[in-house]
Specification:
Layout: H1 12-27, E1 38-43, H2 49-60, E2 64-69, H3 82-92, E3 95-100, H4 105-112, E4 117-122, H5 128-142, E5 149-153, H6 160-169, E6 175-179, H7 188-196, E7 200-204, E8 216-219, H8 230-236, E9 255-257, H9 278-296
Parallel strand pairs: 1-2, 1-3, 3-4, 5-6, 5-8, 6-7, 8-9
Helix pairs in contact: 1-9, 2-9, 5-6, 5-9
Bound molecules: phosphoric acid mono(formamide)ester.
The site of phosphoric acid mono(formamide)ester has 10 residues, from α2.
Length: 300
């Protein structure tokens, strides 16, 4: 494992190693030491969880971070190319963690620099470290990743987290329900990939009647910033709002996940119910990102 750009880069064995390492880090069984190591966090799109959990992960392991939030106050403003910016940061940092609105930018960065690159989200394409923490959260709450029934709800078209998660879960005999407005359905290239792997999925327009048999209900925000036409966003905003009353007949073991940020798609009355797991899910991001950095920098 040299970089993490897409979930397709990881084998089942890689994922197992990452999740096992995260579990050992969480329990204190291993305490990686990254003293004198520096992570370059290059974020060209807003972030709360991903940036701060990577920052926390480095600091928990005695490492340090240098942070670029957008290009303001950098020499990109003087006309420096993206490639030269990356090559320069790679002289200071042992690993680069990058978020960009441009699809494919993390792959490009990995071809330009000779330090490991982690994709922290590239446009509507992929968010593989979110998928890792989602897998960790699913395994922790369900005791397994195998043979689960998982509902993905909301913006399945522009939501990069569900693209990475669907690919990640495709190797665990998952049965999917994709619940979205027609305009925001899962992209064809992902559905084709699932069909090739004989993964079962069904598409629905409504949550009603479609959540009671699930093990995981994964809710996503409609990605307003990815809509070319604001009128299209207005047509679908508020389509799904999960209320506590809708969870009365769900399975005991059901957990509601959400990559966050939430806007209005999960009512706050769900937060204190036993099925809500989204804030613990965010905490799991630190353990999984510690594990990933540790392994990419040569740790066992
Ligand atoms: N889940 C996620 O990527 O959150 P941020 O955009 O806050 O990093």
């Amino acid at each position: 494992m040299e970089n993490l750009i897409s979930m397709r880069d990881l084998t089942k064995a890689d994922i197992k190693k990452l999740l096992d390492t995260a579990r050992k880090i969480e329990s204190g069984e291993i305490l990686p030491d990254l003293e004198r190591k520096v992570a370059g966090l290059l974020f060209f799109e807003p972030s709360t969880r991903t940036m701060f959990s990577f920052d926390t992960a480095m600091k928990r392991m005695n490492g340090q971070t240098i942070i670029m939030s957008g290009t303001k106050n950098t020499s990109a403003k003087k006309g420096e190319s993206f490639a030269d910016t990356l090559r320069t940061i790679a002289q200071y940092a042992d690993i680069i963690i990058m978020r960009s609105p441009i699809e494919g930018s993390a792959r490009y960065a990995s071809e330009v620099v000779d330090v490991p690159v982690v994709n922290a989200g590239d446009g509507a394409n992929q968010h593989p470290t979110q998928a890792l923490l989602d897998l960790y959260s699913i395994q922790k709450t369900q005791g397994t990743l195998e043979n689960l029934k998982i509902g993905l709800v909301g913006d399945l078209r522009f939501g990069r987290t569900v693209h990475s998660l669907a690919q990640a879960l495709s190797i665990y005999n998952t049965e999917f329900k994709f619940i979205s407005p027609k305009f925001l359905q899962m992209p064809s290239y992902i559905k084709e990939d699932l069909k090739e792997k004989n993964v079962k999925f069904t598409e629905y327009l409504d949550m009603d009647g479609n959540i009671d048999d699930l093990d995981i209900l994964y809710v996503t925000r409609i990605q307003r910033e990815r809509f070319a036409d604001p009128e299209d966003y207005e047509k679908v905003r508020g389509t799904y709002v999960l209320q506590k009353s809708m969870l009365e007949n769900v399975k005991e073991n059901l957990k509601v996940l959400h990559p966050l940020p939430r806007v209005d798609e999960i009512s706050t009355d769900v937060d204190d119910c036993k099925h809500a797991y989204y804030f613990q899910q965010a905490k799991n991001g630190v353990y999984t990102r510690e594990a990933l950095i540790h392994i990419l920098l040569g740790g066992e």
